[in-house]
Design brief:
Number of helices: 13
Largest sheet: 8 strands, mixed
Radius of gyration: 25 Å
Strand order of the largest sheet: 28-29-31-30-32-33-34-35
Length: 660
Amino acid sequence: MAWHTAMARRFAWRAVGGLAMALALGGCATGPTHPALTGAQAQLPDLIPVRDFVASRQSTGGYQVSPDGQRIAWFGVDGVIPAIWVRSIDGGDAKAFRIRARSVRFSADSRWLVISADPTGDENHRLYAGRVQGPDTGLRELMPAPRSVSRLVEAVDGGADFVVASNQRDKKVFDLYRVSAEGGAPVPLATNPGSVSWWGVDRAGQVQARTRVQGEQITLERPGAAPGGWVTAVQWSRWESVNLFGLHDGGRQAWALSNRGRDKLALVRFDLSTGAEAVAFESPEVDLDSVTLSRLTREPLVVHYMPGYPERKVFDAGLATRLTALAGNQPAEVRIISADQSDRVLTVAVTTDRGARTYLLRDGREPEFLGETRLSLIADGLATTLPVRYAARDGLPIHGYLTLPVGLQSPRGLPLVLLVHGGPWARDRWGEGTMRQFLANRGYAVLQVNYRGSSGYGRTHMEKAMGEFAGRMHDDLIDGVRWAVERGVADPSRVAIYGASYGGYSALVGATFTPEAFACAVDVVGVTDIARLLEAAPPYWELGLPWWHRYVGNPAVPEDRARMDAKSPLYRAQHAQKPILIMHGVNDPRVKLEQSEWMVAALRKAGKEVEYVTFQGDGHGNQKWSNNLTMYRKTEDFLAKCLGGRTSGFDYYQLGAWAF
């Protein structure tokens, strides 16, 4: 009783304090001060509250149809708590499992949901099972081993079993287990000898293949005649990408996105016994992104790729017509999110640069709207994103995206935010982009650059990044800013650089290697010391570390380490000239919190202007809306000072954010 009383007093005290803060700050929203955003030529739209970008009780997504076509599960909110919802496909019997989930999947018999979650942001992913029918909303953990990662591999046909990969035995590698959503202890299926990077499991739950990393080679192996034995089928260079999936034909064939012997990732049918590839589809411009397979036939339904705007190849003419009708007369990424076992019931997400809407497709019926994301709910006030292309100083074609604020008769000489993606082996995409739209609403032009090293543009484009951290990779970004200035879009004296992870590293490189180019920098979970990043990497990075060594060096080699230190912002803190905002999740397992702490200490020792914010309960990217609220609020206030955009000043959701 005393505990409840104390908590009530604590809540009341914070509420009073929050009310006082609201009264003090509620009128502090400020308009833009940059000349390009003021005057008769600039009629900016209404300022969208920060809360609408980071929290919504109405937004939903990730709709999954059950294999029997009778139920739907989706991501949503129960009250104010993140939840996975499930209901009959036509019924009102919805119930919620209160959990902040990463993914959700039905069992093959449609009676269970298995939910993946990262409760503390440290990427030790957990798996939980919940019963689909009935009022029970309890969840049972399937692999209850502390400080380990568990991942779904396959739902086994005909029942409630799943094949799961887990590093609970050896934190460096993943073994296979068979678990039942109905209960019982996990059953070991295959033990990793220390070099297996992929397990090939069919829908019967049988292990049909595996790949091993062996020096400079990837070896594909098949089960041998003797129990537990393996035989080599084919090898390829570990620097080629062969992403295998969709085993079929009794486990003799698979599909793959492969660039073996070519520059771009193509869809191939892959013979698991000989390694022979038969090309099914490829783009001459870019890598293929993803493939949707038929649940019934295991043949491809749709291939997605993105040279600028999203494009797709649909292999069935009737399905192509239905998906095109959903997109309407606009660029859109139209993806089949899930299908029942007959391919007659589909959930389809239609994503534009203003958010995503999901529909239910059933044969013989009109599409049924299911729900939409936060951006889609505020789409009327959002900006247009355009694909752009320019040549880097060495002639390399660079692709990216430009988003301009709404309401400007002549969008010229604008304050600009260079928004740098992480990875670096990832890419910016046309489509839903919350931070991009938030910044545009505040009055900024937003430039996103797929610099060399970005994925999606072929192996040659990626490999041009070897040895180019804080070198030509950064030149590509600077060349993008120059392109925007030369086109009259950007004010060269009012450019900020913002990024997370590798993007955060880029922001700090901008602040300490080319400080004359930027008015300020924002770093989120960014790398500051490359060598110590790799030395403190999570154990399950072990098989992937040679990739890092190829691109940036091996910290165990003195010559490499010297080069890595020379490219690390931590050792150039004294060269910073402009304000820096650094933000980091305290539970980050990839880029440890110490990376930011070292940088902040070095900047303060050098007498530089730096603001530092940490997020409790989150890691390498925020899951908690309350932390995102803080991040967006800090960002808009910081950029308003150095770029002259507008800021909301206070969002009343801040009053209750402490409770989450």
